[in-house]
């Protein structure tokens, strides 16, 4: 398994609020719906060298409390299921949400680690993906950058 980690991100909200939002994926529905029409977000995506047309894929997101699925077009459907939750209220102040691919061309798992910080919550994402050597060459750098951008995105959600 190849491991990719985001930088630690600061979120200006209490850990309980962040955990409550992220541990039930249904809570992301308004965020996803608003992202499709957010001109500021489109501009930031363009500035990062990406195509803001990717936001159109968000129209096909299927959410439940425990799973998220997205049709990515060429790569098919990508789905993640929450497989474990560690509530900070009962886990010494630390929260973790663990995911596993349910439908994907690669076997992977991801977890979101939450820790109380001085001014809110500290968050770090970790992705482990089972990549053969060819896929590692093709996708490794993209996954490294992608996990950090995903963490940036999660740190900007209103909690």
Helix/strand layout:
Layout: E1 2-5, E2 9-11, H1 15-22, H2 29-35, H3 39-47, E3 62-63, E4 67-71, E5 77-86, E6 95-103, E7 108-117, E8 120-129, H4 133-155
Describe the model:
- It is a single chain.
- The protein is of the alpha+beta class and 159 residues long.
- Helix content is 30%, strand content 33%.
- It contains 4 helices and 8 strands.
- The termini are far apart.
Rough shape? globular
| Major beta sheet summary | 8 strands, antiparallel
How helical, in percent, are the residues?
A: 25-40%
Helix/sheet category: alpha+beta
Beta-strand content = 25-35%
Number of strands: 8
Mean pLDDT: 86
User: What is the count of DSSP helices, taking H or I runs of 4+ residues?
Assistant: 4
CA distance, first residue to last residue: 32 Å
Q: Provide the gyration radius in Å.
A: 16 Å
Task: Give the gist of this structure.
Helices cover 30% and strands 33% of the residues.
